[in-house]
Amino acid sequence: MAFQQMQQEAPVLKYPEDFGLHPNISLENAANMLFRAIQSSQNQPYTWTFIDKPQEGQIYLLFMPNPSQPLNDGIRWQDQESRYTIPVQRGTRELEVAEVKFGFIPNSQDTSAWRMRRRYRLHKGGHPQLVLIHYSRVPPIQIVPSLLNNPVRHYPLRQLTDPPIYVMGERAGQKVFPHPAGPHQSGMPQVGMNPQAMIAQQNSNMEALERRRERERTRDVSGAVGAGQRPGPPRLDDDESADESELLSTRTLAITRYRRNHELMEEVFRQAAFSKNILLSSSDHSQGYHVSDSKKPSSSKRIYEGFDKAELDTKIAKLQNDVEALQAKAAERRAQKVAADDVIVTASGHAPMELTT
User: Fold this and answer.
1) DSSP string covering 3-69, please?
2) Average model confidence (pLDDT) for the chain?
3) Among 64, 67, 80, 147, which residue's Cα sits nearest to residue 117?
């Protein structure tokens, strides 16, 4: 419902990548680009934007819930849009082409109607709501005088504040909100950093933390040696207000949590296995006398006898069913990915979203 509402207000969902300017695009290239966009669009959110007065050779990749809906791009067209479908890639797919000619931009330097727009989408063998738009030129014709200064939309265009959104895949419909940096987030890795930059930043944070600790140790030692001397002015440390956990690397935090979780689990199993001995010992010591070895409960009871076998079997069966379901789902996804990669390599041999002319 959100998609239709935004489409009626004129903004469109655009793939954020810039494809550059290309005077011409073949039908095969358009089909390959639309097919590769299916995979890349699952991991890339689309942004809300206006298409307004595009340049010659401009390319846009849009997600349009209703591909037949008219598209307002700030150009006045003197011709009707025509649609036709042709087979591509040896008949394995059908490409729909919507073409309109003889356009111009009102109140601009255009003295003739020379613009052309083509909208491509895979009617068969692809995602029908992914639309590739390309602007080019045709032999010019004269502009109708009554349309020369008649704009096709109201200006200025309103400012868009809607966040990017995923249009397909498991995260379809999820919005991507920006993460504002807080007062103590300067040492944390920023979203979108490449792995090398994140590692370099973490190493820098660890070095800063070590220098801070070294200064504190030196200051403590010097303070103990010169106890009777007048203390000097306090020394300002780098980022004294920062929390230590914000400067630790991901590896250090992971190791600490790993050890802590194991200690907690050890305590849990210790209580489950020896809870009666612990409680009896605690009660005897609180009453002020010691229990002799003859009165202590027998330790011949095995640890696992404190658990319910039927309950454990039920949990094991449930876990096995969950594991089998996850394995089946993973195998299905793996097969789909392999099939998609094979088709992409067979069709073009280029990396995803690469355009050749």
Assistant:
1) HHHHHHTS-EEE-S----B-S---HHHHHHHHHHHHHHTTSS-BEEE---SPPTTBEEEEE-SSTTS
2) 77
3) 80
Residues of the chain with pLDDT under 70: 1-9, 179-203, 206, 220-249, 274-306, 342-357
237 near 212, Cβ under 8 Å? Answer: yes
In the chain, where does DSSP find H-type helix?
A: 2-8, 27-40, 195-225, 244-247, 250-286, 309-347
Helix (H, G, I), strand (E, B) or coil at 83: strand
In residues, how long is the chain? 357
Measured from the Cβ of residue 13, the count of other Cβ atoms closer than 10 Å reads 22
Contact 249, 205 (CB under 8 A): yes
How many DSSP H helices and E strands does the chain contain? 6, 8
Please give the structure tokens belonging to residue 244: 């230590």
Question: How confident is the model at residue 240, as a pLDDT?
Answer: 45
Structure tokens belonging to residue 132: 């590739």
Measured from the Cβ of residue 55, the count of other Cβ atoms closer than 10 Å reads 8
131-168 in b/e burial notation, b at 16+ Cβ within 10 A?
bbbbbbeeeeeebeeeeeeeeeeeeeeeeeeeebbbbb
- Asked if 71 and 10 count as a contact pair (C-beta separation under 8 A), the reply is no
In the block, tokens 């390309």 appear at 134
Model pTM score: 0.50
Question: In terms of Cα–Cα distance, which of 145, 135, 142, 144 is closest to 115?
Answer: 135
Q: Phi and psi (nearest 5°) for 41?
A: -75, -15
User: Which residues make beta-bridge pairs with 135?
Assistant: 117
Query: For residues 183 and 241, what is the distance between their CA atoms, to the nearest angstrom?
Result: 10
Between CA 316 and CA 322 the distance in angstroms is 10
- Whether 12 and 64 have beta carbons less than 8 Å apart is answered as yes
Q: DSSP string of 231-250?
A: P-PPPPPTTTTS-HHHHS-H
**Strand, helix or coil for residue 104:** strand
According to DSSP, the residues that pair with 59 across neighbouring strands are 134
CA distances, 198 to each of 74, 139, 183, 245, 255 (Å): 42, 53, 20, 16, 18
User: Where does residue 49 fall: left (phi above 0), alpha (psi -120 to 50 degrees), or beta otherwise?
Assistant: beta
Q: How far is the C-alpha of 352 from the C-alpha of 40, rounded, in Å?
A: 7
42 exposure class (CB count in 10 Å sphere: 0-12, 13-18, 19+): middle
